[in-house]
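Human: I'm a chemist; would you kindly supply sequence and structure tokens for a protein?

Assistant:
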Amino acid sequence: METTGMEQDVRKRNHLTPEDKYQIFLEAVRAERNGGIGEVIRKYGMHSSDLTRIRRTVEEGAINTFKEKKSRKPKVSFETYKEKEEEVKRLEQIILEQAAEITLLKKRTRSTYVRP
């Protein structure tokens, strides 16, 4: 089967993973200091517009991450909060009952204890 010149000219698309794109971004940042961005572009067989798009995506992702307001406390629904509040009350009641039982048992053992 013979290939025409037109088929050979068609550039095969690189489908890069997000990790690959981030690695390219890091290499471009390092190369930018040395003025060797062209090397990175040639290494990965991409256009400068591809690298620009990757840079913009990384910037937007970083900005959006910093914009998100993260609370140190996990968000809990009102229903879950009420359930937990009821559970705390129930457990506190059990603790009070057990404390009263322990006090009674201590009093009983003191009154029945005979000193040698």
